[in-house]
Amino acid sequence: MSPPPSSPSSTPPSKSPSESPSGPTSDSVDPAAVARDLEAVRSRAPLVHNITNFVVMEPTANALLAVGASPVMAHALEEVEDIAGIASALILNIGTLSPAWIEAMVLAGQTASRRGIPVVLDPVGAGASAYRTRICMELIETVTPTIIRGNASEILTLAGEQGGGRGVDSTARAEDAGAPAGVLARATGAIISVSGALDLVTDGTRELRITSGTPLMARVTGMGCTASALTGALAAVNPDFVEAAAHAMAIMGVAGEMAADTAKGPGSLVPAFHDALYWMNEADLGERLRQP
């Protein structure tokens, strides 16, 4: 099964978006609620199906294991329908695209959507090439993701704005993507999670912002991809997908800060980050979760 042909578009697919004149309602993230979701992941060990890129398979799987989830990396067209048929969440990450993988993403995504399990789309590098942007728009149309998690440049591109970007890196701030993220959420029906020095999560009516984290995280490849995977794990245990997406970003930021306490640089940040995911508790969240 191949994605249906379509031409590149600069505007998101529409599901009768309704603009709120007063803007989204700001909400706060409760550390105790984040801790409850974290404990739910640890006790239930949801199976998270990842169709992700070659660069991040190992660190993403390790992060999911550290947080208590059960990862499976499966992209062969011959098995994705079976794996998506037993998973608790599906992650679609377009980092290293190929036609066969796109076909597998559509098949797995449609299977997951029929089952009603959360689907997280990571539009890696959207805007860097017309091909990437077109594939993202086709996946939004054919799979209808539950959550779209990307950096500001990627989200701006999907919202039909000038995203900028430098390859897979963002040149825009999450603050700049706030209003377009709300438009994209209302147009697609997906929760939009924008990562950066500030993390922003919105469904077009509610908005949550988190500022926990460390600049060292931007010096390690795959942190955004890891955030998408953890978002899937949290969405597997919390049906309030706005909360789930925000809680995943809170865990990412707090783990980054905990890891930075002992890391000497990017190389030692990664194992310390995985340790922080493993040991994190409600006290850590209460102490380190920061919101503007």
Give me the secondary-structure category. Answer: alpha/beta
Q: Indicate the proportion of strand residues.
A: 5-15%
Q: Which class in CATH terms?
A: Alpha Beta
Uncertain spans: 1-21, 163-170
CATH architecture: 3-Layer(aba) Sandwich
Quaternary structure state of the chains depicted: single chain
Count of distinct structural domains = 1
CATH topology descriptor: UDP-N-acetylmuramoyl-L-alanine:D-glutamate ligase
How many β-strands, per DSSP?
A: 9
Q: Could you tell me how far the N terminus lies from the C terminus, measured between alpha carbons in angstroms?
A: 45 Å
Fraction of residues in helix: 40-55%
Shape: globular
Task: Kindly describe this structure.
There is one protein chain. With 292 residues, this protein is of the alpha/beta class. The chain has one domain: UDP-N-acetylmuramoyl-L-alanine:D-glutamate ligase. Helix content is 46%, strand content 14%. The chain is built from eleven helices and nine strands. It has helices at 31-44, 57-67, 80-84, 99-115, 130-143, 152-158, 178-188, 223-235, 241-260, 266-279, 282-288; strands at 25-27, 47-51, 70-73, 89-93, 119-122, 147-151, 191-195, 199-202, 206-210. The protein has a nine-stranded mixed beta sheet, with helices on both faces. Helix 2 crosses helix 8 (223-235) and helix 4 (99-115) packs parallel to helix 5 (130-143).
